[in-house]
Amino acid sequence: GYAQAKAVSGGSEVRINIDLPRKRFLTEDRIVSQDASGQPVEAWAAGKERSIPDSVSVDLKGGAGKVTFYPDGSSDKAEFGISGRYDKKYAVSVEPGTGYVNVKETQ
User: Using CA atoms, how far apart are residues 44 and 69, in angstroms rounded to an integer?
Assistant: First the structure.
């Protein structure tokens, strides 16, 4: 997907942040700089933002709303459910070793 490709091509971590209270998800880029004493300082800069339609519900498994993709193509493990119109439901999983995102329709 987009976040994984950006992490690999850019050589830096990219995170997807699912913000349920605000009904949105966004990408965030990891930025490391140095403070005045030369110590590393980490921050996340907001990137692309998208709204989650009111007709769509997201169920975060284990409460994890953030998934980080790494420059080597791997990622954090994540699982969540998505449901929407017409009673369609999907299980989404992200495989940590490969960063592969799998979407399966469920009953």
Answer: 13
Tokens (6 digits) for 21: 């209270």
Whole-model pTM: value is 0.82
The count of C-alpha atoms lying within 13 angstroms of the C-alpha of 20, restricted to the half-sphere facing its C-beta, is 13
Structure tokens belonging to residue 66: 């953030």
Backbone φ/ψ region at 33: left (φ over 0), alpha (ψ -120 to 50), beta: beta
CB 90 within 8 Å of CB 83: yes
Helix (H) or strand (E) holding 102: strand 101-106
* pLDDT at 5 exceeding the cut of 70: yes
The C-alpha atoms of residue 104 and residue 101 are separated, in whole angstroms, by: 10
Q: What digits encode the pLDDT tens for the residues 37-83?
A: 989 898 999 889 999 999 999 998 876 789 999 999 999 999 999 99
Q: Using the structure block, give the residue that is written with the tokens 């850019």.
A: 10
